[in-house]
Write a structure and sequence with these properties.
This protein has 517 residues and is mainly alpha-helical. Among the domains are: 1-131 and 142-190, MFS general substrate transporter like domains (Growth Hormone, Chain: A, Up-down Bundle); 195-257. Helices cover 79% and strands 0% of the residues. The chain has helices at 7-39, 44-72, 74-93, 98-126, 132-160, 165-168, 170-184, 198-221, 226-251, 267-297, 302-308, 310-320, 323-330, 332-350, 359-385, 393-426, 434-442, 444-454, 457-492, 498-505. The protein is globular.
Length: 517
């Protein structure tokens, strides 16, 4: 049963608060890594696993979290997951060793999967089909708000307080979210409890973990790294085997598969999931490169970098929040296409960024890109969600989130390769000792440090110019991804507004599937 009146928007605020807490954990961690290295005596490898381990567990738990929600209740799973997220945050703050911190990160990954999957699922419970685009816009803003807020808040807290507070801050947020969820969000679950598909769960977990690990390794070691290639192949084999197994169960009378493959018979769901992934993948060009540019080229600190990312969030809100009204007039296909076009335009303008580009120039093109992301992401996600009934929204939402979460490391690996190849080809390193050359080639931050230590303005200019050229190439690649999203939208996303017309003509029961044909 739908929540009524203003209550459902307060419930959305509670859900968004949980999503924001999960996002803040990841962005705050990047700022806290140098402090953690000293406090926990962590090696470089340990620091990488603090981040990678979390993402691996997050990817692994997506589909099982969706199944649990459909089986035992979406509200129940979301409430428990958010509570565990608060517990994991406290455990991170009071960790005294690398092992304790890694264990706490694993708990956060498990809990985070429940939060992000059930948050999407909650939108199908709280809102009618016509209201979901607006709700998705608010959800998307909460998702991306952590990008600037994390470094701003984390940098300030690390400068003034004990490092544990950057994790403890999530505990009261989680507690408030739990109370609000219990009070405001109605329960929903499948009318017929889904079976526990152990083979499907095992194959999906193995495939997603291996594929995500392979992308992470490719981003760090390169696409030719044997471990990265092997992991990606294992992941692909696992996911293909998962698809074959699920198809078999779907065809078997009485079979209870993890994933209802009939969802993919809907062009709205299938292409909504794919296009949402393309929108996020394209935007990674900004999220991956710009913090490095702000800190390595412009010399900003983490807090200053976060402040400079705010135009992206402003643009996203401007694009996402009114998407619902625009879709009613122009249709989902045209609105999503306009979003991808704006996103590509912003990225192409951004690819002309130089070492001395003005703050206004940077803010404008990032805001345009953010606006395009808001339109494309909220419309694509809504197109997928409109095909989900309340009772089976858990696994459907998990598919949407799993594709997006795996896309993060994948996009970082692709764009990192594009940036690195141009960066290395543009460096001018005459007569430097081998250790200095190796450091400069490793990253822009190491290159800036070597140039400043050597007192060489020409070397400093070379490093910053080379990185900016690499960043511009990464943004060109991102713009190309957005253009592919535009073409796919125009070709495959359903054209009509049948969902809106159906909604106006008949009430929604929660078991109806209103398709866009």
């Amino acid at each position: 049963m739908k929540a009524q009146g203003a209550r459902r928007w307060w419930a959305l605020a509670a859900v968004s608060l949980g999503v924001l807490a999960v996002g803040l954990d990841g962005t705050v961690l990047t700022v806290a890594l140098p402090t953690l290295a000293k406090a926990l005596h962590a090696s470089e490898s340990d620091l990488q696993w603090f981040t990678s381990g979390y993402f691996l567990v997050l990817a692994a738990a997506m589909l099982p979290a969706g199944l649990l929600g459909d089986r035992f209740g979406h509200k129940k799973v979301l409430t428990i997951a958010l509570g565990l997220f608060g517990v994991g945050s406290v455990a991170c703050a009071y960790s005294t060793s690398v092992g304790e911190f890694l264990a706490a990160r694993v708990l956060l990954g498990l809990a985070g999967a429940g939060v992000v999957v059930m948050a999407i699922s909650a939108l199908t419970v709280l809102f009618t089909k016509t209201e979901r685009p607006k709700a998705v816009g608010i959800w998307a803003a909460a998702n991306f708000l952590s990008l600037p807020i994390g470094p701003i808040l984390g940098g300030w807290m690390l400068s003034h307080f004990w490092w544990g507070w950057v994790f403890l801050i999530n505990a009261p947020v989680a507690a408030i979210g739990v109370v609000a969820l219990i009070t405001l969000v109605p329960e929903s679950r499948a009318a017929e409890r889904p079976g526990f598909d152990a083979v499907g769960v095992a194959l999906s977990v193995a495939g997603l973990v291996a594929l995500t690990y392979g992308f992470i390794e490719a981003g760090q070691e390169g696409w030719s790294d044997p471990a990265a290639v092997a992991a990606m192949l294992v992941g692909l084999v696992g996911l293909v085997a998962f698809g074959v197994w699920e198809r078999r169960l779907n065809r078997r009378p009485g079979g209870k598969p993890l994933l209802d493959l009939s969802l993919f018979g809907s062009a709205s769901f299938t292409w909504g999931v794919i296009l949402a992934a393309f929108a996020v993948l394209a935007m990674i060009g900004v999220l991956f490169t710009m913090p490095q540019y702000f800190q390595g080229v412009l010399g900003a600190d983490a807090m200053g970098s976060g402040l400079r990312l705010l135009p992206v969030i402003l643009g996203l809100v401007v694009g996402a929040v009114p998407a619902e009204r625009i879709v009613r007039v122009a249709g989902a296909k045209l609105v999503a296409a306009a979003g991808f076009l704006l996103l590509a335009t912003g990225l192409l303008v951004g690819s002309t960024t130089g070492v001395g580009s003005s703050t206004l120039f940077l803010a404008v093109w990032m805001a345009v890109a953010g606006m395009g992301l808001g339109l494309a992401l909220s419309t694509s996600t809504s197109a997928a969600l409109v095909e989900l009934s309340e009772e089976r929204s858990g696994v459907g939402s998990a598919v949407l989130q799993a594709v997006n979460k795996v896309g993060g490391p994948f996009g970082t690996a692709i764009l990192g390769s594009a940036l690195s190849s141009v960066y290395l080809s543009r460096l001018v390193l005459p007569g430097l000792p081998a250790p200095a050359v190796a450091a400069i080639r490793r990253s822009v931050f190491a290159g800036v440090a070597v140039a400043q230590q050597a007192g060489s303005p020409s070397l400093l200019h070379s490093v910053r110019s080379a990185f900016t050229a690499g960043m511009d190439m990464a943004l060109v690649v991102s713009a190309g991804i957005a253009m592919v999203g535009l073409v796919l939208t125009l070709r495959f996303l359903p054209r009509s507004n049948a969902v809106q017309h159906n909604q106006r003509m008949q009430p929604e029961t929660g078991r109806e599937l209103a398709g866009i044909r």
